[in-house]
Amino acid sequence: MQRAKLNYIIDVGLLISFLIVFISGVLKLPPALQALGTSLPYSAITPIHDISGIIMGILVVIHLALHWNWIVSMTKAFFAKKDNIKK
After folding, report:
1. Where do the domains of the chain lie?
2. Which residues contact 53 (CB under 8 A, 6 or more apart)?
3. Contact (Cβ atoms closer than 8 angstroms) between residue 27 and residue 36
4. Distance between CA 63 and CA 12 in Å, rounded?
């Protein structure tokens, strides 16, 4: 698979899992449940929130692994520029 396609798939997966975690997290708040008048029980929201959070964590680790060389390069460049400014 092409690297760009893999990055795209991982990023879309991150977006979807983030939205699920965020929405389910908000729905777990008692005031939100009351305000929305939802009939979803807390016990049904929690597994959705937890599983999507785990999936998001796995995707973040994969994302970081795929971009590790870039992260290292940018970190080195950032600190090299700071050192040049001090001198």
Report:
1. 3-86
2. 17, 21
3. yes
4. 11
